[in-house]
Specification:
Largest sheet of chain A: 2 strands, antiparallel
CATH superfamily of the largest domain in chain B: P-loop containing nucleotide triphosphate hydrolases
Number of helices of chain A: 16
Distance between the termini of chain A: 46 Å
Structural class of chain A: mainly alpha
Strand order of the largest sheet of chain A: 1-2
Helix content of chain A: over 70%
Structural class of chain B: alpha/beta
Shape of chain B: globular
Largest sheet of chain B: 6 strands, mixed
Helix content of chain B: 25-40%
CATH topology of chain A: ABC transporter involved in vitamin B12 uptake, BtuC
CATH topology of the largest domain in chain B: Rossmann fold
Number of domains of chain A: 1
Radius of gyration of chain B: 19 Å
Radius of gyration of chain A: 20 Å
CATH architecture of the largest domain in chain B: 3-Layer(aba) Sandwich
Number of strands of chain B: 10
CATH class of chain A: Mainly Alpha
Oligomer: heterodimer
Strand content of chain B: 15-25%
Number of helices of chain B: 9
Number of strands of chain A: 2
Chain lengths: 324, 281
Amino acid sequence: MDLLFDLLREAIAPTTAAFALAAIGLNFHFGLTGLLNMGQAGFMLLGMYGYAITVREGGPIWLGIIVAIACAAVFGVILGWPTLKLRGDYLAIVTIAAAEMIRYLGRSQNLNDLTGASTGIRGNDFKGSFEELSPFPDSMVTIGPFTFHGTRSTSWWLVLVGWTLVGLMVLLYWRLSKSPWGRVLKGIREDEDAVRSLGKNVYSYKMQALVIGGVIGALAGIVWSLGASVQPDSMGRPTTFWVWTLLLLGGAATVFGPVLGSILFWCSLVLVKGLASAFIPTTVLSSQQLEPFSLALVGVTLMCLVIFRPQGVLGDKKELAFND
Amino acid sequence: MTDTDPFAHVPHEPGAPKKDPIVTADNVHRHFGGLTAVEVDHFEVQRGAITALIGPNGAGKSTFFNLLTGFDKPQSGEWLFNGHSLKGVSPAAVARAGKVRTFQLTKALSRMTVIENMRLGASRQRGENFFAAFVPKLWAQREEEITAQAHVLLKRFKLYEKKDDYAGSLSGGQRKLLEMARALMSEPEMVMLDEPMAGVNPALTESLLDHIVELKNEGVTVLFVEHDMHMVRRISDWVVVMAEGRIIAEGPPSTVMQNEEVQAAYLGVHHDTDLSEEGPA
């Protein structure tokens, strides 16, 4: 029973919302346009830095958000400018390298005053102004079976803001993917040259997709950092791969796929951990070994899913069947 | 030949000037390393006619096609469409100018439905702008017009029943039809078809030919690359023959194959199919 509550708690946790956001961004890249962005964590990290540094230096929240969005947009343009004219694989290589560069730059001692190097930026340095806005009391609050703090870190306030953002971005994706704009992107996903021959400026559309998806990634970064702190190493390659995993899990190019994928992914992690700690004696698997073991098990489950249901949970098999 | 025949006084020679050219090209050269793919000194396409571009394999027809539509860039040369230079113009802008092409290897957008393929071909849809996309009011009416136009074309090309199917589920021939219909969505002045008959079964070939002739009757200029001489003779008004990157002959379909240079070009490369058909006729 406790495990069930843990699962549900994980399902609504801000981290889950943050990853859902990042996956919605990636869905613009991959699901709609077919862009292989392997550096979504880079966009998230830039969003964190943009927000946290602005607010730490005394900027208001709205300015922090604008700076985060601007950072991601500029990053997208810089990445896309040379690579979007080339074949898709080049974008994958460049984005994975560029995201790592952002992380290493953030970690470097020379930028200690700005980014806090490898220790990052402490939550207390930038979370205050956001938490002051909370309508919830400044203590532990129990709603239904769940207990979160009212305002601090992983709080009801952040749950509310995070999932509202997810809702808005789902709406945004729905509106855009069902519009003629989204149709052009889907055409590009299928065959760039065909879309060119129909008079559409493919380069410009790919750039728009890259930037909008990256900006949503930056928002995901802000939500994530408000629940924890700014930590460059938490936004390494594994984060990008998790975002990819949960997007494919839920179903790429679907409206709710990223959200469902994020919930399933984090819940299954809790489930595996919970079951393992309940049934496997500590003499066989110590508690330190539990974490990597459950990650590995989740990995295997996901592999099975991709093999036996490659379109994801919500995807349309018919649509994928013509992937030639 | 009647007096209205635009080719009545056109000399039967390479690079012959036409009465009312929609496309002209001068000194278009394209090299791939040491290989000369295209070396066209002068080329004109008559407006409102069906012109066939033929030649043995490797003659540079498809490369020339790519150059004329902006999909490839030549090392030198000048080419005009409706009197405007298309040098350095992007493929998308060429299409917007009214010259739309299809591809030798059909590019149906498989994971989109037939009707979505068609809608994508339309021009002047404001909803394709990122910001306008948020406000359906701005583009819903145009979307209806486009859909109505697509239905008419799909009925004509006998694809109407398939309109909600994924394009990937169509047969090869149906994809060719879809690609052609999609190209017509923007109401182009000129369509360029790269091997429209390749891989199409004989039953569909007839209707495809009729569609091309119908285009001409509607005033659309057609330039097509084709290997099938039977088809070239049936529908084209004028034939341009390329070999080794150059235009070696021009003329009406009834006589051009008798040209000695043309025979040499074909016999030298592959001496069976096309000419043996010509023989007994």
